[in-house]
Amino acid sequence: MNSAPALAQNEPSSPGRAGRGLNLSAFWTLYAFSLRQHRHGKRWIIMAALMLLPAGLALLVRNTAHNVPPVAMEFIFCFMLIPQALLPLVALIYASGIIQDEQEDQTITYLLIRPIPKWAIYTMKLLATLTVAVGLTVVFTSLTYAVIYWGADTHGQNILLRCLKASAIHATAVVAYCCLFGLMSLMAKRILIVGILYIAIFEGLFANLAFGIRLLTVIYYTRLIAYRTLPFIVSTPFGTQDFAAEAWQLDVRTDPKLLEHPQFATCVIVLSVGSLVLTILAAFLCSKREFYVKTAEKA
Predict the structure, then answer these.
(1) What is the pTM of this model?
(2) pLDDT-derived band of residue 19, with 50, 70 and 90 as boundaries?
(3) Model pLDDT for residues 92-120, shown as the tens digit of each residue
(4) Whole-Å CA distances, 208 to 41, 84, 87, 228, 247
């Protein structure tokens, strides 16, 4: 199959393109167009079905194992299953297609002839992706909390506040993952394979090791934010148990205040600034990229 010439070098000139200035109306149009693409595609349906898994499992546990404390279910489903398995996968599936989907569908041509610089094309499409990913994350995190705590004995806990905190933590994580995988999608052709390897090795293995390398993972910082804002103390027949400290390899016996780990504000800054830097790098790479589209084979 012959490749078309780089569209970036053959764009028709127009009065609005000469300066490549900031066209807010065009930016908003592209953002709205990208949202419609997400809404009409089947990807969000698949992702929604996947995000239903924690709520479904929580419902199963509540109906079959009545002695499991709600806090234990919250920790397992909302702070182990969702952030370690589902959020990175959702971000990978969405972010990997920011530009590649346009090339596969050959709609990149339409975008490149618009009065929008290539860095803005990436940024607006990323914002639309973040909107959908964060929306799904908040909705299904809240649904999982509702399934876990509806009608349960909460022992005076403010479940709504816990749910809001968890939703904010998950939203922060999925934004960071989307920005990361968005950049990786511009650097690797087989982004799904590379992304899954990253999730398995870095977020799945290295984040669970008590070594400095976990400072390079997203989930390490989200876990610290969760630990510092939400207690996961559960009373068991064997005594009081701190589920989070044990599962996340946090040595609270010798360092009860976790002074050797980043503080709450530091974690938020690292994730926020890291997401911004990844976005800027990806937008820069996109602005320098020459895009090729598939053309029909000649008979």
Answers:
(1) 0.86
(2) very low
(3) 999 988 888 887 777 787 787 777 899 99
(4) 35, 11, 17, 18, 8
